[in-house]
Amino acid sequence: MDHPAHTPDQEPFTGGSPPAAADPDEHLVREAEKIAVAVGRMFPGLCEVVLHDLRDPEHAVRAIENNLSGRRTGDPATELGLARIADPRYPDVVQNYPNRFPDGRPAKSTSIGIRNAAGDYVAALCLNLDVSMLSPVALALANLVATGTEHRDRPLETLRDRTARELRHVVEALAAERAGTPRSLNRKDKKELVRQLHHDGYFDSRDAAQTIADLLGVSRATVYNYTK
């Protein structure tokens, strides 16, 4: 009696149940776990990354990388995680909210909910940035770039050339403030405009006086007289 041929790419069925298909929710959580580990290792000592398995709220912490809060895998879900479990309408992403580590250090946190194909939350990826380490740096930078207020009303110098194009723009803007064009201004307004330009350092560059004179429709000598 002939037996049917067995194709090489098929294993013969030997009894028992066929292998079950992989749980898609578990697959999502495992993929998120890889992201948590990679992101945490990108910012050692600075940003804690925690993956919560919302399918098991009593033991939700699935992975914790760069541990700054002292939690462990298997710890329960936080209040935010429980809120996601209770309300499927809870926002997918809660970004940059203030937080605090158990020892009192300030943190900036972001929580990202992960839904399955049915739209249910199965996990949450949370990032907790230790801003206590950055505050002294921010203060130092603020002090570094701060300038004195003693001479704020009158610039001592300018480090860039006052080009003709820039002069034209400034003159036209100042004239518009006086409801006119540079050439249409009366003598008093032109005099005030020139004095403003002189005060702001626009006469420091070469040919500035001639450029201003051409814009106002007066002579170069008149422009210098206006500055006195």
Q: What is the averaged pLDDT score? A: 83
**Global structural class:** alpha+beta
Radius of gyration: 35 Å
**In DSSP terms, counting alpha (H) and pi (I) runs of 4 or more, how many helices?**
7
- The proportion of strand residues reads 15-25%
The biggest beta sheet reads:
5 strands, antiparallel
Order of helices and strands: HEEHEEEHHHHH
Give the proportion of residues in helices: 25-40%
Unreliable stretches: 3-20
Shape: elongated
The count of strands amounts to 5
Terminal Cα span: 123 Å
Topology:
Blueprint: H1 24-42, E1 47-53, E2 61-65, H2 79-86, E3 93-100, E4 106-115, E5 121-130, H3 135-145, H4 164-177, H5 187-199, H6 208-216, H7 220-227
Antiparallel strand pairs: 1-2, 1-5, 3-4, 4-5
Helix pairs in contact: 4-5, 4-6, 6-7
Question: How would you describe this protein?
Answer:
The chain is α+β, with helices and mostly antiparallel strands and 228 residues long. Helices cover 36% and strands 18% of the residues. The chain contains seven helices and five strands, in the order αββαβββααααα. It has helices at residues 24-42, 79-86, 135-145, 164-177, 187-199, 208-216, 220-227, and strands at residues 47-53, 61-65, 93-100, 106-115, 121-130. The chain has a five-stranded antiparallel beta sheet with strand order 2-1-5-4-3, sandwiched between helices. A hairpin with a 5-residue loop joins strand 4 and strand 5 (121-130). Helix 4 crosses helix 5, helix 4 (164-177) crosses helix 6 and helix 6 (208-216) packs across helix 7 (220-227). The longest helix is centred in the N-terminal third of the chain and has 19 residues, at 24-42. 25% of the residues are buried. The model is unreliable at 3-20 (pLDDT under 50).
